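Check this:
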Amino acid sequence: MMALPNLKTGSARKLQGHLKPDHDLEIPYTLIEGTRPGPVLVITAGVHGSEFCSIEAATRMTTMQPEELEGTLLVLPILNVNGFWKRSIYVMPEDGQNLNRVFPGRPDGSASERLANWLVTCVYPLADAYLDLHGGDLDESLSPFVIYPHGCAASLALARAFGLPTIIASGSPGHTVSAARQLGVPSILPEVSGNGLWDDDKVTRITDGIARVMAHLGMIRTAPANGEAVPRLVTMSVPVAPCRGLWYCFKEPDDPVAKGEPLGEIRSIFGEVLAQVNAGQDGLLLYRLTSLSVNEGEALLGIGEELALTDA
């Protein structure tokens, strides 16, 4: 099936099955309409098929029942289905593209672009709010953070409600949340865990955040308390590899960095230093590539630089 079921019928129900956004792709879905009217929250995961912590969190949300809910919850727990089964890093195996870089996509484009276009034209317009869950891919470690589209106050409110230690204001095009924002849909991208790992504590950190967002939207009455301190609000810069080689990082997530400080180096297989990577500004290391191998142009690090509340 191409079209989603009607999300608002006025009758409590729970539907599960598969959607067919493209001729050779089927993705699972769960739709839960509550016993009382309310907003529509769309949750996706598995944009990157090996970010297992977020996928598991999304699947746990599908156990909700209509009597627990005001409004409608739509969960698409694995968008990059083939990437999930093949344990692909970042890309969709069908075309080798990173789905979270091709939005809003094209109806006549590659597999990734067609899936992005389906989400933008058929799913996002139905949402009152949108969460795209991520979980640290097989080659990256990170400090938990949540990304929101820079300048969108409603999205920033969702990010604060979610309750992670760092909030990143992003103006990057091509992403799920930037495409949703263009349609006027408040949206955030939480990222928890790393290296494809998951356990109950990390998964619960995500599901608790979802519950707080649902309480913020008025979809549920109570949610777990947010134990985080006041979050840091940052923008993020991402140095990329200037060449191919072996990557040796000198920092770990949550480490402070100073402008000009060496953050790591790329060496040849024989130990020759091919490139040194220095910090472009003061900040905080948010994530790093944990892979020994690196190719030219690949992201090495994410560095958070403090953003004033007046600039949010």
Residues 200-217 form the longest helix (18 residues). The chain has two domains: 13-217, 234-311. The two ends are 40 Å apart (CA to CA).
